[in-house]
Request: fold
Amino acid sequence: MSVTPLTSGTRPAAAGRRPAANDSTGLPPLKSGSRFGALADAWLPRLVLSPTIVASLVFVYGFIALTAYLSLTESRMMPNFEYSGFGQYERLFDIERWWVSAANLGIFGGLFILFCLAIGLSMAILLDQRIRHEGALRAIYLYPMALSFIVTGAAWKWILNPGLGLEKMMHDWGFTNFTFDWLVDSDMSIYTVVIAGVWQSSGFVMALFLAGLRSVDDSIIKAAMVDGASLPTIYWRIVIPSLRPVFFSVLLVLSHIAIKSFDLVMALTAGGPGTSSDVPAIFMYQFSFTRGQLGLGAASAMMMLATVLAVLVPLMYLETKGARHGR
Amino acid sequence: MKLKTSVKAVLALATLMGAAAQAAPQVEVLHYWTSGGEAKSVAELKKIMESKGVAWKDFAVAGGAGENAATALKARVMAGSPPTAAQIKGPSIQEWGQEGVLANIDQAATEGKWESTLPPVVTNVMKYKGHYVAVPVNVHRVNWLWVNPAVLAKAGAKAPTNFAEFFDAADKIKKAGLVALAHGGQPWQDATLFESVVLGTGGADFYKKALVQLDQATLTSPTMIKSFETLARIKTYIDKDAAGRDWNLATAMVINGKAGMQFMGDWAKGEFTAAGKVPGKDFLCVAAPGTDKAYTFNIDSLAMFKVKNPEQQKAQLVLANAVMSPGFQEVFNLNKGSIPVRAGAARDKFDSCAQKSMDDMAATSKAGALLPSMAHGMAINTAKAGAIQDVIARFMNSNMTPQAAAQALAKAAKTS
Reply:
């Protein structure tokens, strides 16, 4: 009801490079010449698209508006539509757990995006060197994306559990000094979420970058080679700058994965130990649905939306500006 | 034309059939009793209802603590078609009562003489503004300590009755190279432990003042600080892998002799008996340290929702009476591991832990030491209980001082 505002804003990133479909409708012309055909040409696309538009207006923007309104009411267990001002926001900012979740979102979001970009780009560049078995390697790297975050979370929960996974294995092998107990350490648990998130998403980032790299014009690179530029220089000065649209798409996708992250944290740490790896999405869910504080939950959802907009709006602006200047 | 007629006929027939289905007495019950023993218990209730000519429509929503069930229920009530009855407990019954959607079942209560068979602490929970709106199903005792006697024997310790003895036993078990206390570091389990420690440290009246009435002075009193100090010491006997562990895995540690003791409600007994263990021989159930004269309860109940059809209203009363009938109370609780809520139920089929629980409930009810469990949503509303749970979880997972924790607790109690 309140954490879904993003899906309509993101598009398959690789499509950004492709030329647009040949005409405005993208449909093959019907019987041209007949009056019926012309009418159908003009109206069919609108007719087909209108339910989707209505559906998104109601179920995305309508519910955003409803959530915004609920955050201004005293709603408890059930929605109550009596306006009561900004009390819920005051209450929200007074809860220490909210600030823990907000800080965790900062840590997780920042590191997750940074590492995914760095690892994804490096893997893409290395894979781009026309190596053998590239297809197989690509599939291996991309495969984690096929798992849901729940599976990733559960698997990493076992791997990182000191009494069950990595630490126990090392102890069994004789390295008794080895410790890796971030999962049960309330100061470090949020970083385990970063590890699992990066593991899952960097392959996907690699695929996007690889597609982008392949679309860079070969002749420019060859010209640079003729001029005697080294491979790192070519990548640094020519290839990566021309990947700008891919960077935007990747940033968009990653930042909204980070902000709405719920299932990964739920499966990996369940917000624990205690509430130390809590994120705003879990906070919102618990307060709205299990603690009977719908108004407070709505307020926290609006804060999440604000975060999304704060990231999204500048990115979109930069991207469209780039497109206007015909980059 | 012909087509139109036949469509009309089909529609009319469908309406008639729909009306017929509506008229037959039927109850729709939303519950989250979906695990093995629980599902068996519900099937028993279904049998009783059908023998009385009432159809049973199951509306089971899986998910242990009932969070999913609560969400499904809200959706149904908002859509204007609530189920006949739903599994709701504690102060949540009052919250639903305030929404004005619960049905008055005083008639069933008079017929079944509930006032004389139930302790007043329990009937108060089942009433909204003096009228019965819910029927209790079972009683779980929360302040238990589960002990593995083989571990105690190995360590040369004995089952504790107060905290001094508890720490003594825990030290010995630790020295023997085992985990002294099996615990799962989930917020609700931390709260369960905390609640028993408060009760053991301060006694029943202190518990009532602090965790039921949320008296500010009591929440910051030296006794509360002492409770947190005790809790901090207990923390040192828990292994570090406890974070996020499920309660039944912690119970398994006691069953396998990896750990000596566990604080947990009597649903843990189901794990022991499922593993083929015998109470009194393979495992002991003793009251949590210092709490043998008190009893924290967690009662499941079915709240009745307003339904329009008079047939359905009658079926609702039949359901309420069936739930309170001695036969159902016995079968249900034998399967679930809890004890019957009504006094004077047949007891010879229950095991020694359940019989002790029955005796203690009767005794504490007379002494005024029968207390609602804060950790299990029986004492205070979910918003306050949640805020308090957050404080306990933070204390359990950081180096917060007992003084700071007591202050934070008092602030959390003010949550509205």
The interface with chain A takes residues 65, 67, 70-71, 74, 77-78, 92, 95-96, 99, 185-187, 190, 239-244, 381-383, 386-387, 390, 393-394, 396-398 of chain B (CB under 8 Å). Confidence is low (pLDDT under 50) at residues 13-21 of chain B.
